[in-house]
UniProtKB/TrEMBL annotation:
Residues 97-233 form the Transposase DDE domain. One of its GO terms (molecular function) is DNA binding. This is Transposase, IS4. It comes from the Bacteria. It comes from Microscilla marina ATCC 23134. InterPro entries: Tnp_DDE_dom (IPR025668). Pfam families: DDE_Tnp_1_3. NCBIfam families: transpos_IS982. GO terms for biological process: DNA transposition. The lineage of its organism: Bacteria, Pseudomonadati, Bacteroidota, Cytophagia, Cytophagales.
Length: 268
């Protein structure tokens, strides 16, 4: 845990210095220390900021602020956190010489359907979606993720639970190197068949009229398993219930779990 924490702090601190971000020297805790604490919470404490704050204070010597001040500062730094992730993702794309990428989505449930009337954060019907793999409805968000062939996330897009994957995919700004190969769900092929700089590979349905060769079908199946493993590893960071008091806070915690996982794969 100590090595991970130090590595993440150095990475964030260097990034903030690189972009020329200047801080008020009177602040009790620096932006890099605060972001590191939030990512440590996502990696080791199921998103519990108070436990991460205690750890950073007791084991890393951080001069910690109170919890309400921490949350206000963290929400104010959400744009910078996203910029850091984008910068990391672009670096991983440049290092991915194979230029093979996978895209899929996984649901993040705010509550079960039976609890919708008592939910105080997400109240609109737009958040009700269906998880085909689990054959159940859920209430929350969908996270579209692009990963490398090894399952390391390089880009993401979060949509309301009711959005179909193809709708979210159309809204997502896909920025991959020219000539990349992107393995996607069946329903997206026709929408992007005109794409010139990204070659799409679709996992065919059993009744598809556009059959794959046995070798290509095997490759697609193996890659599909890799992205599903990535989702399982990300959601393993989640608590039984993600605690948040606003939709923005809920989304921020989803992002922090996702970012913490990416950094774990990079640092490991």
């Amino acid at each position: 845990m100590t090595d991970y924490t130090i590595a993440i702090y150095c990475f964030i601190d260097d990034f903030l210095k690189k972009i020329g971000r200047k801080e008020n020297h009177l602040k009790k805790i620096t932006d890099a220390e605060l972001m590191t604490t939030a990512l440590v919470a996502g990696r080791y404490f199921s998103g519990n900021h108070q436990k991460a704050m205690n750890y950073m204070k007791d084991h890393q010597g951080v001069n910690m602020i109170d919890k309400s001040g921490f949350n206000r500062r963290l929400h104010g730094l959400s744009t910078q956190l996203n910029a850091i992730f984008i910068g990391l993702g672009n670096t991983l794309k440049r290092l991915n010489t194979e230029s093979v990428y996978l895209i899929d989505s996984f649901p993040v449930r705010g509550c079960r359907n039976i609890r919708i009337p008592r939910n105080k954060i997400l109240k609109q019907e737009i958040y009700r979606g269906k998880s085909a793999s689990k054959r159940e409805y859920f209430y929350g968000f969908k996270v579209q993720v692009i990963t490398t062939k090894e399952g390391i996330p390089v880009d993401y897009f979060i949509s309301a639970g009711s959005f179909a994957d193809i709708t979210a995919f159309q809204a997502m700004h896909i920025d991959l190197p020219e000539g990349s190969q992107l393995y996607v769900d069946y329903g997206l092929e026709d929408f992007y068949k005109e794409c010139e700089d990204i070659q799409l590979f679709i996992e065919r349905k059993s009744n598809s009229k556009r059959k794959d060769s046995p070798a290509l079908a095997f490759i697609k199946k193996q890659l599909r398993k890799r992205v599903e493993t990535t989702f399982s590893e990300i959601t393993a960071f989640f608590p039984l219930k993600i605690h948040a008091v606003t939709p923005e806070g809920f989304l921020l915690k989803i992002f922090l779990f996702f970012f913490a996982y990416t950094l774990k794969r990079v640092v490991a």
